[in-house]
Amino acid sequence: MYSHGSESLINQAREIQEPELQKFYSRLVKLLQVKELSHETLDSLQRLQLILFANKFTKILPAELQQKLLSLLSSPAEQLQVLGSAVLRETLPPSGQELNFSEENLSQLNTHAAALLLSQARSRADLSNLCAQLIRSLESRPSEGPTQSLMFTLPVLNTVFTLSPECLTEDHVTLLSKKLVDWLRYASIVQGGGASSGGFFTGPRSRQPLPIAELDGSVSGDFFTVLCVGQGFTEDQWMNVYSFSMLRHWLLTHHSVSNTAVDADDRSEVEGSVVSVVSVTSSSSRLLPPKERLREKAFQYCQRLIEQCDRRAQKKADSELQKACLVEAVCILDCVCAEDASMVYRAFPCMKALFGRLSSDLSFARVLLPIAQFYLNHGEMDTVDCERVWKLVFGQFPAELFNDAFLAYELLRFLRLNLENIQSRAPEFVQFFPNFLKFLAWDSPAVVEDFVDLLPSLVTTGTAVELLHTLLDLPCLTATLVLQLRSTCLPIADPNSRGLLSLEAFRNPAFRGLFLFLLRAQAGSGDTIDRLGTLHELLAEAADWPRVVRCAQTVPVLLHVYFNTVVKMDDRKLLAHLVLVMLERSSLLLRIPSYSKEIHRVFSCHLRRLCKLHPSLVVDQSHELLEFAGATANVYNKEEVYTHVVWVLGEYLSVSSDSRCSVKLITSCFEALEAVLFEITSSTPPPGTICPAPRVITTLMSALAKLASRSHDLIPRASLFLSKLRTVSRNGSVAWCADEEDLVAIVTRGEELWSLLKAPGVAQSVLTPPAYVTTPRWHRDTSVAMPLQLRALTSLTHSQ
């Protein structure tokens, strides 16, 4: 975790002895008495902080040193404030002193002093006391103490509310709501800092405060907001900015506080008709209770911000500030409307106009997401048509901004947090899963956790098959997205664009349809494409691209989530189709090292699981399963899948699993597996391949024995083959098995099966036991002695 040098320093700090530490304290006190602090003082403070941090037990500082450190919190040098706060946080409150939230301390509040105050609060009672003191400090007049401390009070209060919302009382809510109303709506409209109007006769008497300005340079004609500019700002203007920054969190916090103490007449004028609310003016809003009045002023403030964002900013940084303020303003309006539903009718005209203005400019995508959230939360109340919003958010955003990491995070978070609401209000979002998967294809490690949560909601009867194909082709989608960006960045005439065969194929009209299918925005145009092999050949050189490799590593994880979801749907027709897809796609995968092996492992796991849950699937898809199991090439190319296909055929192709299973079907399966086993045990492996795995051979042998035990006419053939296998192996090494130990294991398994088949009745009981044997419940059966024995043993072992 630490470098060698860091570990050495930490060990030195831990091993320092108490006498040496006391001397160090004394020297540091002397250093802190000097007015001009030197580098030696800074180094000593850093060393002290390391000593206190590295020790297991909290140290108690001498009182004099502690007072000196406290004085550093009000030092003009921020570095000293940081060090003083860091040291004291390692010592207080274990020093034995009680928490002291005095007015004197609060009047000197700054960022680092606030961090110290919060670190001292070790219980909810402490936080409640701190909260009460801070709120009382807001009541003081500016002339009663340093005004700058007020600017640090709101952030500390915001942190306290986050840690413990229950610290708030109804009186606190009322007081702070009143203060926020004053700061938000009635801040000064002239510039602070003694701005001069200029001119030849400018002097102390002729200096007149200038009015605040808008971002486009014009004089502001309305109240002050965070988007107003000037040469300097007054304290109440700064408080306006701080108030806006915490307004949304405050609205969410005080909304959760119990309203039982609120008088009925506090709400009487707000819960009236929509007409009465719409007609509220600034004069009548003064008659509202504090919380309702804050909502009204927050509404007005946000509307003013949205109007200010129509202005063209003179600086690029101000344009970004406008976007950030739009996001916050829309979120605050959403909170206000959630608390007071009657405000929805006043907010929607503004929201519609804002969406209409921004929807054509994708640079405002992160602003449009909160607008979509507003539509989702309140669209039903105003019966708004949200189709345009969903087409933009689900369609255009992922298609064109898949490489925007911030948008990907926010859009996927929007989907996760509102999943139930979206499923009821916009069920068509499921059809956009090819679009959503572009985020995953582009930056798999960053968003894979989001898709683990989202994927089950995308699996429906109508999308399941296409979604499986899309997941398997996800590395192809990654490569295509990379090619799409390169195609737009590198002109055709650029020599750098001629080296990639895949890029030339992407630009080739003959293959354009293949790539367009991968880049489709919505599902429904087909489960997959016919020329997958051609597509994989065109993208062969992308197999080692880092982005493609990372994407391929996430596909097995998502396939497990996918199959776990499909199983719960319990749709036999769908599951039968998925079995065919697994068999087909096991040979149609992009050739990425270890990718095919991982996918085969997932297929094998869930093929066995599906057949165990629904054994009739084996009879339903017997033709395709036999065709797959009868191909000798699959033994070498798809060992994992082939082994499990043979196993399910041997395990579930029986009358006990499905009454439709006939002797003819068992015989045809036996003959197909017998032919494959004979071929691989009587010839050398094809060039370029290795010997078949012993597990494949033993699984084939077991499947033949199981099938023979169910159709006694096949027992002689199975016994003859097993005896020949034993005879061949006695002659020494064989071409189809390179390891002597593996050969011995195969022969031993063959002898066991051969011995079982001598007694057909026993063979069937052993190789195909009934369900009550494979899943015993003897430990729960009250009619047998085993439960009594288990309870007796348990009591004996636990009595000691």
UniProtKB/TrEMBL annotation:
GO terms for cellular component: AP-5 adaptor complex. It comes from the Eukaryota. Residues 450-796 form the AP-5 complex subunit zeta-1 C-terminal TPR domain. Pfam families: SPG48, TPR_AP5Z1, TPR_AP5Z1_C. Residues 1-280 form the AP-5 complex subunit zeta-1 N-terminal TPR domain. Residues 321-438 form the AP-5 complex subunit zeta-1 ARM repeats domain. PANTHER family: AP-5 COMPLEX SUBUNIT ZETA-1. This is Adaptor-related protein complex 5, zeta 1 subunit.
